[in-house]
Design goal:
Blueprint (H helix, E strand, L loop, with lengths): L17 H8 L4 H23 L13 H11 L11 H11 L3 H21 L3 H17 L6 H13 L1 H4 L5 H4 L26
Protein name: DoxX family protein
Keywords: Membrane, Transmembrane, Transmembrane helix
InterPro entries: DoxX
Length: 201
């Protein structure tokens, strides 16, 4: 007599490891995620607010695009040598797309940084805000600017991974619930090993 191997209760779903649930989906770690989220949000808000309120108007205003043009020109100067700081394909993008539209990118950068900062501080659509923050960090890094971008990019990546609980101490706790997303504690359940219990209230 042969026995058939046990089949998963729902073969269409992949079970999440307990460690992954603990780190990225357990509300008990919400304070840690809140600290990271607010720190990254503060950095973006300060950077963006400085651009929006710049008295010379080189980011937003009559001289919009001036600062971006200078930044892009400096980045294009880093494309030479055996080990350039700016890759050739990205230099093409900067020269043919970004530089001719410097004024548009100026507004996108200034207000984008402010919006990302506000969203992260409030914990509103944290995963989306962190994603766009990471895109800006990657853009600056590709342009040869280091500064705090590596650290902020790493933290943004973590916030994207922990989107389910990163905004638990924030507006996401209420907003995401309307979309059926409710963080659940990584606790064992009586219904079987690896089973996630019901919504944590």
């Amino acid at each position: 007599m042969t026995t058939r191997p046990l089949q998963p209760s729902n073969p269409g779903l992949m079970h999440e490891p307990r460690l992954s649930r603990l780190l990225f989906a357990d509300p008990r770690l919400a304070p840690v995620w809140a600290l990271l989220r607010v720190y990254v949000g503060y950095e973006w808000l300060v950077a963006g607010w400085g651009k929006v309120t710049n008295p010379a108007g080189v980011w937003v205003g009559e001289q919009a695009g001036t600062a971006v043009s200078g930044f892009l020109t400096g980045a294009l100067a880093k494309t030479g040598g055996d080990h350039p700081d700016v890759a050739g394909w990205y230099a093409w993008f900067l020269q043919h797309v970004a530089l001719p539209n410097a004024a548009v990118f100026s507004y996108l950068v200034a207000y984008g940084e402010v919006l990302v900062g506000v969203a992260l501080i409030l914990g509103l659509f944290t995963g989306i805000a962190a994603f766009f923050g990471g895109v800006m960090n990657a853009s600056y890094l590709l342009a040869g600017t280091v500064s705090t971008n590596p650290l902020l990019f790493i933290l943004a990546t973590w916030l994207v991974l922990g989107w389910r609980v990163a905004g638990w101490w924030g507006l996401d706790r209420f907003v995401l619930a309307r979309f059926g997303v409710t963080p659940r504690p990584a606790l064992p359940s009586a219904t079987g090993p690896g089973t996630v219990p019901g919504p944590h209230r």
